[in-house]
Amino acid sequence: MHIIIVGEDLSYFAHIHPTLETSGSRFTINHTFPKSGKYKIWVDFKPKDGIQTIVAFKLNVTGNPVHNSKPLVNDKQYTKNTDGKYQVSLTIPKEIRANEDVDVTPSYPMPLKTRSQI
User: Fold this and answer.
1) How sure is the predictor about 38, in pLDDT bands with cuts at 50, 70 and 90?
2) Which of 71, 2, 67, 72 is nearest to 41 (CA)?
């Protein structure tokens, strides 16, 4: 089982493996949301002898600090520096079409200092 939590503007992400309670009847997590705002939670599970299932929920978290949402922009850049520490690239075809397989290749994040020393 997996719980995925994502902030509305994609600025926050958590991938959590819930713990099965000793009673064996339910899974639980303890999670602290870093800021108030809108989040989406996906519960990903596969019942014994069942099929993989994903269920989504929306949450509105209140309190402080308040998250100042950033607009999502498709800047069509496929190489990004994250926090000045890592460079991540995505290799994709010129055109991506619905209902067709596509190869998307992410780079392995390597620290920028290491990259410049190579």
Assistant:
1) very high
2) 2
Tokens of 58: 């929306």
- Nearest Cα neighbor of 105 from 78, 82, 87 is 78
Please tell me the pTM assigned to this model. Answer: 0.70
Ranges assigned E (strand) in 21-98:
27-28, 37-45, 53-61, 79-82, 86-91
Rounded CA separation 40/14 (Å): 11
Query: What is the average pLDDT across 55-69?
Result: 94
The gap between the terminal CA atoms of the chain, to the nearest Å, is 40
β-bridge partners, 9: none
Residue type for 40, please? K
- 107, 87 Cβ separation under 8 angstroms: yes
All structural domains of the chain with their residue ranges: 2-61, 79-117
Residue 41 CB coordination number (10 Å): 16
pLDDT in tens, 84-99: 778 888 888 888 888 8
